[in-house]
Design a protein that fits this description.
Length: about 450
C-alpha cells in the first residue's frame, strides 16, 4: 500500500491556486475512495477546486484517478455499435428513460451509467428507483448480459464501476460544489469511460435550471469535456439544449417515469410534451450519426421516428426494465407506479405572457416536497411531484393554474405552490418561446 497522501498540503496548495500533480490527485482520490481520507477533507478540497479550478492537465488527472477507482467494462462481446448519452443535469429531464430503449431499437448497444439527483436537478437513478424491483446495482456481468440481450441497460456507479464518482458525487450534492466545470467533466467522463461506449453524446443544458447559466459557460464545459474525452479516443458530440424551463410537464420521480414511458407508447409521440419528444429525437439521432449508423440527420431522425411509432422502443423499454427486475403494469396508464394525489396549485398572479421561469427554484420546490437530498443519508419521497403546465411565450389569464403540486401534505404543498408561482415572470407584451436546441458541436475525431 502506498504512503498516505499529504491531504492537508494538497488542500492548501489548491486553496492558493497552485497546480497539483497527477500523483497528488490520484492519491487523494484513491485515499477518499478507500475511506482513508475523511469526507470533511475531501469537501474542503472540492470547495478549493470550486474557487480555484483545475487546469486541463489536472482535469485529465482527476478523470483518470476516478476512472481507475473501479474496473472498465470490456464491450467487445457486443455486436452492435456502442453509444451513450449523458445530460449535465436539468429539471424534469427524463430523456434517458426514453432514449436508452429508443436507441437500442434503432440498432445501438447502450450501456448507460447514470447518476442520482444533484443539486436542484433530478437524476435518472432516483427516477428508476420509483419502479418496484428495479435493480441499479447489477454486477458487471449482469449489466453486459442485459445490454447484449436487450440492447440497453441503465445502472449507477457502484463498488466496481467508477466508485470514486459515486462518493464524490454524493458529497458535491450536499456541499455546494456541483456547478464546477472540471468536477462535472471528471464526474461525467469517469462514468462514461468506465462503461466503455465508443461514442458519447452530451446534452449540455443551458439556462436557469442548469448548472451552466449561459452559452459562454456552457462552451467552457463543452471544451473541457471534448478535450478530456479525446484523450481516450472517444467520439463526442455536444448538443446545447435549453433549460430555461422544465422539460416536459412532469417533475418528480414516479411521475417522470410515467410521462417518459407513456410517451414511448406507439401513439405516444404525438401526445407527449413537444419539447420532450423533440429533444429525445434530436439526441438519439445524434447518437446514430456519431456511431455512423446513418449518413445524415434527416435519415437518422426518420429511423428514430419509425422505431418509436412502430412500438419497437416501447417493447424494448418493457424488456429492459423487466431484465433489471422492474415490475411495470403496461396496461395501466400509470404503469402501476405510485404517485401522490394533487395537493395544491400554483396560479398566475396576473394576466399576460410567460416571460421567464426561475427553473432552479422549481427544482428546489421539488426538494421541499421531500424528493431531494439535503444530506448524504437522506431517503427520497419518490411519489411527490409537480406538473408544470406553463411554457415561456404562453398567454395566461389571472389565476390560471401554472403548476399542480402532487403530495407533500398541506403546508408543504402550499409552500411549494407559492415558491413556484414566484418563480414565473409574467410580461405584458407577447414573448417568443426560446429555441430548444441552441448549438451543436462534434469532436474533430468524429
Ligand atoms: N452529471 C454527472 O454525472 N456529474 C455531474 O457532475 C453533473 C452532471
Amino acid at each position: 500500500m502506498s504512503a498516505a497522501p499529504d491531504v492537508l498540503g494538497i488542500i492548501e496548495r489548491k486553496k492558493r491556486g497552485r497546480e497539483l500533480t497527477a500523483d497528488e490527485i490520484a492519491a487523494l482520490v484513491a485515499g477518499f475512495t478507500a475511506g482513508q481520507v475523511p469526507a470533511y477533507q475531501m469537501s474542503a478540497w472540492l470547495m478549493a477546486v470550486w474557487f480555484r479550478g483545475l487546469n486541463p492537465a489536472e482535469t485529465v488527472a482527476l478523470t483518470d484517478a476516478m476512472l481507475a477507482s473501479g474496473s472498465q467494462l470490456d464491450l467487445s462481446c457486443l455486436s452492435c455499435p456502442t453509444a451513450d448519452k449523458h445530460s449535465t443535469g436539468g429539471v424534469g429531464d427524463k430523456v434517458s428513460l426514453l432514449l436508452a430503449p429508443l436507441a437500442a431499437a434503432c440498432g445501438l448497444a447502450v450501456p448507460m451509467l447514470s447518476g442520482r439527483g444533484l443539486g436542484h436537478t433530478g437524476g435518472t437513478l432516483d427516477k428508476l428507483a420509483a419502479i418496484p424491483g428495479y435493480r441499479t446495482d447489477l454486477t458487471n456481468d449482469e449489466f453486459l448480459r442485459v445490454v447484449a440481450e436487450v440492447g440497453c441497460a441503465v445502472i449507477g456507479q457502484g463498488p466496481t464501476i467508477a466508485p470514486a464518482d459515486g462518493r464524490i458525487y454524493a458529497l458535491r450534492d450536499v456541499t455546494g460544489t456541483v456547478d464546477c466545470v472540471p468536477l462535472i467533466t471528471a464526474s461525467i467522463l469517469s462514468k462514461k469511460l468506465a462503461a466503455g461506449p465508443a461514442s458519447i453524446v452530451i446534452d449540455l443544458k443551458i439556462g436557469s435550471g442548469a448548472f451552466m447559466p449561459d452559452l459562454a459557460s456552457g462552451r467552457a464545459l463543452a471544451a473541457a469535456l471534448m478535450a478530456t474525452a479525446a484523450r481516450w479516443g472517444r467520439r463526442t458530440s455536444v448538443v446545447f439544449s435549453d433549460m430555461s424551463q422544465p422539460l416536459g410537464t412532469a417533475i418528480g420521480h414516479a411521475s417522470e417515469v410515467i410521462e417518459a414511458f407513456s410517451a414511448l407508447r406507439p401513439a405516444g409521440r404525438a401526445r407527449a410534451p413537444a419539447d420532450l419528444v423533440a429533444l429525445t429525437e434530436e439526441l438519439t439521432a445524434e447518437m446514430l450519426l456519431l456511431a455512423r449508423l446513418e449518413p445524415g440527420r434527416a435519415a437518422a431522425l426518420a429511423r428514430v421516428r419509425r422505431a418509436w411509432d412502430e412500438g419497437l422502443a416501447f417493447e424494448r423499454m418493457l424488456r429492459w426494465v423487466s431484465a433489471q427486475g422492474g415490475r411495470l403494469a403496461p396496461d395501466r396508464e400509470d404503469f402501476g407506479l405510485v404517485v401522490a394525489p394533487p395537493a395544491g396549485e400554483a396560479t398566475a398572479a396576473r394576466a399576460g405572457w410567460i416571460e421567464a421561469v426561475d427553473c432552479r427554484e422549481v427544482g428546489l420546490s421539488l426538494g421541499d416536497l421531500g424528493a431531494a437530498r439535503r444530506s448524504v443519508e437522506d431517503s427520497l419521497d419518490l411519489t411527490t411531484g409537480i406538473l408544470f403546465h406553463a411554457r415561456i411565450g404562453q398567454r395566461v389569464d389571472k389565476d390560471q393554474p401554472l403548476a399542480t403540486i402532487l403530495g407533500g401534505g398541506g403546508p408543504a404543498a402550499r409552500a411549494a405552490a407559492h415558491r413556484i408561482a414566484g418563480a414565473v415572470t409574467i410580461a405584458q407584451e407577447r414573448v417568443d418561446p426560446p429555441p430548444l436546441v441552441l448549438e451543436r458541436l462534434t469532436s474533430p475525431a468524429a
